[in-house]
């Protein structure tokens, strides 16, 4: 299996690549209204401080207590506990990992979710990876609360907040010294008899208990006030380490699962580039001369003979060495400081720093199955069946022969991708009162990320070609490049005789690849907030007056990457294509305003009626673009409480998102996508007539090799001529807080988000399927099969770079998602004990993608697969019950649920289903239920010990074959969606001094 290309992973695809997850959170709380006499509070989603009011759009809050109870030290795991969140990049990704941890609200992509720290934007987290912020940067121990506003917030925080915002609130008021430490590991019993029977047919499945993945996290924080508390400093320093977990330790991931020949059961398969040499492109005449049957390819056996290649027998099992969870080390430090000179001048400063490194390990590289050339007087060919098959009658002459070669460089070991991040963020600002009615806030923010990416143990196409061109020099096999002096270090690569590859040859063809880059973000923001009620601007039916905000913002995004020459030339055999430099920048100038208008207060049937209006004008200047984009976004929100027990709320938001740097400047290149070619194989699932539409000739039909790793070529890249996309977001809900049941709050909110003219890609699999099903020239013209001149690769979409699907970034059709959010909270006292119940759930009604405006569409709600991506359950929830005793000992039980999903290839929608029958074994992934337990034990007034266990019953994840998994999961499952490492045990200690 090759490395999934960056272009495939970093694009914002219109095909719903839904990276879904719902991991445990101890408790989720719908934002509560302030008490009647509470101080003014600020609600995420508005720049106006509003007393006695909750957000008009649905906001879900995770408290510091929830964070500690969850047992997760990583913010990525913390954020992914919520049903509204779909996982982006995470530590469960190894093949194609960019090292970051991103968040994706509503499955609309990380580039449509804005991440904030105390209401200020967090910079993009990667080089060339779109606009997703890296959650690794967030110090979890200092987070006081996390607010998720999923009703749209473009007019408030920026036009790219299409899906909403995630606001991490820091504990700026902390005083004292706190040490927070946690240790965790995973424990799993390998006892799946069915899957062990499958594995043991070819390999040896692990049995018994495995305890692995030790991780520890420690943070030291301090907070001090000075000068009679006019000044404040809060600082922190932390270290986190995660140990590596490989797929070898689990019976369900140790072998790469494929459907059997009848598609009914699992069997161990893998990559079409095996450990033993695979030889293809042999003519029928040469096969007869060599005494072998005609076949598309052959495996070199241990006795030196060629036998027809079988994917189930000969495919390379890349599972065991792949990381199931990447190891990582993170160092963080930061400082939040402020000082009140007087009520008019209150300077403040934030400084946050992170040094983060992680390693992605995947299977060995090699000469990935594809076209090669060899000289027929190569001494390794003489007297062999392989030599007669490749060269035929020309064997022993100075002629050359073209053939197909696949050979894993297992002698050289697995590939490593060492990824290092060094990043910091500085905010300096000044706020204060202008008068009794007006206050201001102005700040400058700068963030920078430097990335060093070193890809080790790949193989060089150039060196492989050199090492295959071998001549006899005085009885010694010698590279021709040594003879002519073009490469004196060349070592002959003998793949024509059993066990012929020497350690020296394996080391020679190995190559490191180095990519460095920098992302910078500069923001200048200023705003004033006024209470016009002090001037008499108020409704005659309301006590509170109109409040407004006026502001302006300048933002500059810069990106530059520099790959080494081997990356640029595409010399890495496992990379899927060249990786080219990127350099670009754009600026945004915004003017924004917001108004909160209380209309009626404390009247019959109108306990409260209020309206919130917002508007933002954005002007984008893109380097190299021929025109300047302008965008106007706005919001209209309202709340109505006929009585105190009931509140109705609704909102409409218009968002206009301009393309980000990656979408604009990513270079055109051929890389890999995960999918299938319906016209490949001896018995294609599409007919000859259908395949002809995609460029397959009659002679090629039935003779195109299948890529058993489910990876094919696509042409992808940025586009400076992209237009901004538009989105409409509707929400409507009700909050019930009955006075006759003290402590109970329940809310139901409907959401509906539609993105038009979406910036992204159509999806290579969608293009293939639509061409075959409809014959539409628009889709068929995007399929470029390798020409007849490519020899044995002719007709292929993966054997060489001349065959690909054109899947460049463009303004496509639309994305639409809708459903309901459910939140419930109840707390009461029973004697001296306290009981708390919390519930959060999402009902996904629709997730509709329309790749072309006015064209076909398909609904991925309740599906997963090559087109729909990660599972998108229609119903997800988690609920917990916490009992706190009089001595402050607390016990918490949590139940997490994900409803079943079906593979998209069996959908009744012909625009979603792929041609041919789906593997029966993949048709349905059953509903999953997890139980978690946690205990909190106060050892002293200032020391608390927490013990916990997530996935108490060690439930195995649902398993998926390679045919349906594609590149969206790994280890035969979807780590972003399901618990995949077994039972998690953790212990946490918090000590205040």
UniProtKB/TrEMBL annotation:
Compartment(s) of residence: Cell outer membrane
Keywords assigned by UniProt, alphabetized: Cell outer membrane, Membrane, Receptor, Signal, TonB box, Transmembrane, Transmembrane beta strand, Transport
InterPro entries recorded: Beta-barrel_TonB, Beta-barrel_TonB_sf, Plug_dom, Plug_dom_sf, TonB-dep_rcpt-like, TonB_box_CS
Membrane-topology annotation of the record: Multi-pass membrane protein
Motif stretch (TonB box): 40-46
Signal peptide segment: 1-29
Residue ranges occupied by any TonB-dependent receptor plug domain in the UniProt entry: 55-165
Domain TonB-dependent receptor-like beta-barrel: 414-952
Keyword DNA repair listed: no
Any Pfam family hit: TonB_dep_Rec_b-barrel
Family: Belongs to the TonB-dependent receptor family.
PANTHER family hit by this protein: PTHR47234, TONB-DEPENDENT RECEPTOR
Name this polypeptide is given: TonB-dependent receptor plug domain-containing protein
Organism (species): Sphingobium olei
Origin organism lineage: Bacteria, Pseudomonadati, Pseudomonadota, Alphaproteobacteria, Sphingomonadales
């Amino acid at each position: 299996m090759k490395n999934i290309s960056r272009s495939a992973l970093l694009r914002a695809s219109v095909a719903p690549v839904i990276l879904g997850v719902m991991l445990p959170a101890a408790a989720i709380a719908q934002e509560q209204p302030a008490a009647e006499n509470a101080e003014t509070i600020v609600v995420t989603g508005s720049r106006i401080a509003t007393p006695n009011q909750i957000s008009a759009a649905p906001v879900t809050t995770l408290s510091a207590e929830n964070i500690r109870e969850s047992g997760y030290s990583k913010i990525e795991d913390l954020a992914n506990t919520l049903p509204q969140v779909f996982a982006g990049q995470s530590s469960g990704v190894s093949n194609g990992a960019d090292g970051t941890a991103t968040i994706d609200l509503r499955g609309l992509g990380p580039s449509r979710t804005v991440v904030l720290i105390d209401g200020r934007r967090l910079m993009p987290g990667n080089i060339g990876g779109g606009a997703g912020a890296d959650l690794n940067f967030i110090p979890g121990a200092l987070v006081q609360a996390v607010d998720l506003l999923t009703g749209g917030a473009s007019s408030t925080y920026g036009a790219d907040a299409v899906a909403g915002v995630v606001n991490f609130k820091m504990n700026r008021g902390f005083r004292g010294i706190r040490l927070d430490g946690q240790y965790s590991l995973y424990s799993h019993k390998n006892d799946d008899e069915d899957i062990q029977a499958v594995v043991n047919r070819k390999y040896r499945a692990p049995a018994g208990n495995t305890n692995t993945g030790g991780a520890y996290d420690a943070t030291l924080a301090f907070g001090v006030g000075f000068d009679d508390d006019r000044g404040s400093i809060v600082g922190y320093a932390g270290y986190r380490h995660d140990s590596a977990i490989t797929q070898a330790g689990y019976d369900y991931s140790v072998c790469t699962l494929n459907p059997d020949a009848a598609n009914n059961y699992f069997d161990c398969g893998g990559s079409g580039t095996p450990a033993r040499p695979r030889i293809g492109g042999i003519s029928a005449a040469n096969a007869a001369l060599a005494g072998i049957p005609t076949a598309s390819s052959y495996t070199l056996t241990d006795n030196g003979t060629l036998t027809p290649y079988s994917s189930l027998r000969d495919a390379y099992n890349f599972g065991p060495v792949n990381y199931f969870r990447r190891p990582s080390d993170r160092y963080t430090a930061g400082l939040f400081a402020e000082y009140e000179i007087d009520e008019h001048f209150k300077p403040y400063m934030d400084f946050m720093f992170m040094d983060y490194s992680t390693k992605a390990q995947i299977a060995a590289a090699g000469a990935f199955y594809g076209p090669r050339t060899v000289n027929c007087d190569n001494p390794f060919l003489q007297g062999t069946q392989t030599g007669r098959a490749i060269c035929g009658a020309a064997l022993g002459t100075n002629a050359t022969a073209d053939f197909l070669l696949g050979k894993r460089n297992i002698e050289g070991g697995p590939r490593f991708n060492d990824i290092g991040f060094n990043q910091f963020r500085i905010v300096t600002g000044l706020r204060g009162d202008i008068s009794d009615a007006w206050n201001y806030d102005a700040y400058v923010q700068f963030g920078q990320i430097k990335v060093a990416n070193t890809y080790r143990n790949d193989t060089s196409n150039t060196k492989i070609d050199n090492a295959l061109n071998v001549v006899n020099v005085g009885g010694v096999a010698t590279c021709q490049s040594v003879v002519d002096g073009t490469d004196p270090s060349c070592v002959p690569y003998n793949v024509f005789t059993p066990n012929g590859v020497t350690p020296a040859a394996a080391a020679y063809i190995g190559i490191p690849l180095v990519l460095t880059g920098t992302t910078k973000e500069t923001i200048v923001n200023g705003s004033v907030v006024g209470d016009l009620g002090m001037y008499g601007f108020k409704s005659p039916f309301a006590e509170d007056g109109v409040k407004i905000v006026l502001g302006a913002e300048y933002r500059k995004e810069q990106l530059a990457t520099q790959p080494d020459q081997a990356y640029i030339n595409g010399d890495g055999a496992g990379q899927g294509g060249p990786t080219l430099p990127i350099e670009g920048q754009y600026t945004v100038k915004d003017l924004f305003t917001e108004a909160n208008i209380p209309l009626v207060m404390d009247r019959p049937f109108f306990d409260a009626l209020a309206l919130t209006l917002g508007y933002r004008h954005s002007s984008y200047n893109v380097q190299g673009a021929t025109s300047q984009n302008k965008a106007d976004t706005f919001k209209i929100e309202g709340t109505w409480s006929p009585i105190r027990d009931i509140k109705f709320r609704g909102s409409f938001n218009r968002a206009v998102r301009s393309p980000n740097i990656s979408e604009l400047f990513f270079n055109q290149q051929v890389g890999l996508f995960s999918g299938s070619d319906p016209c490949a194989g001896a018995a294609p699932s599409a007919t000859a007539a259908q395949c002809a539409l995609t460029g397959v000739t009659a002679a090629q039909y039935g003779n195109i090799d299948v890529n058993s790793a489910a990876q094919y070529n696509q042409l992808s890249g940025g586009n400076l001529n992209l237009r901004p996309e538009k989105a409409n977001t509707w929400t409507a809900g009700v909050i019930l807080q009955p006075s006759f049941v003290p402590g109970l709050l329940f809310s139901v909110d409907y959401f509906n988000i539609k993105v038009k003219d979406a910036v992204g890609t159509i999806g290579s699999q969608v293009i293939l399927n639509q061409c075959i099903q409809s014959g539409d020239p628009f889709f068929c013209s995007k399929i470029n099969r390798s020409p007849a001149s490519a020899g044995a690769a002719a007709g292929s979409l993966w054997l060489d770079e001349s065959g690909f699907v054109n899947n460049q970034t463009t303004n496509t059709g639309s994305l639409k998602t809708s459903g309901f959010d459910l939140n419930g909270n109840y707390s009461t006292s029973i004697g001296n004990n306290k009981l708390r119940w919390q519930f959060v759930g999402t009902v996904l009604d629709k997730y509709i993608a329309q790749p072309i405006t006015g064209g076909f569409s398909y609904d991925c709600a309740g599906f997963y697969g090559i087109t729909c991506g990660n599972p998108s359950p229609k119903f997800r929830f988690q609920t917990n019950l916490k009992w706190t005793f009089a001595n402050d000992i607390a016990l918490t039980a949590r139940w997490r649920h994900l409803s079943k999903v079906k593979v998209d290839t069996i959908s009744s929608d012909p625009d979603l289903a792929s041609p041919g029958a789906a593997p029966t074994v993949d048709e349905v992934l059953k509903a999953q239920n997890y139980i978690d337990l946690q205990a909190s034990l106060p050892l002293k007034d200032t020391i608390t010990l927490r013990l916990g266990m997530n996935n108490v019953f060690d439930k195995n994840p649902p398993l998926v074959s390679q045919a349906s998994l594609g590149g969206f999961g790994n280890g035969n499952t979807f780590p972003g969606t399901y618990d995949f490492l077994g039972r998690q045990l953790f212990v946490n200690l918090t000590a205040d001094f």
